[in-house]
Hints:
The chain has helices spanning about 25-30, 40-50, 65-70, 80-85. It is mostly helical. The chain has one domain. The termini are far apart. The structure holds iron/sulfur cluster (SF4). The site of iron/sulfur cluster has 14 residues, from α2. Iron/sulfur cluster binds next to α2.
Amino acid sequence: MTTRIGWEHQAVCRSVGIDTMFEPGKAQRTNKKVCAQCPVRAECLTEALEGEHEYGIWGGLTERERRKLIRDNQHSTSWTQLVATMLQPAGRVTR
Length: 95
Ligand code: SF4
């Protein structure tokens, strides 16, 4: 069983049942839609990457998507920074 701590009280997936986020296979593509409006998506995805959580949907990414993200960024020194950049709204300019 996976434990989510700290930010979990703000998790939108609590309203649909956390088990929904751990359904296997193709269901993940549908179930991850709940993450789009989640205020703790960055924290959730960072937790998964830092904790090397293999299973379930975390931060709006399926297991397969997270594996690809890790492969494509295997030399990243900060998952926090990478996730912040990834989830930055399109068109937003940072200074
Ligand atoms: S990003 Fe998705 S899986 Fe993570 S806490 Fe939010 S709703 Fe749940």
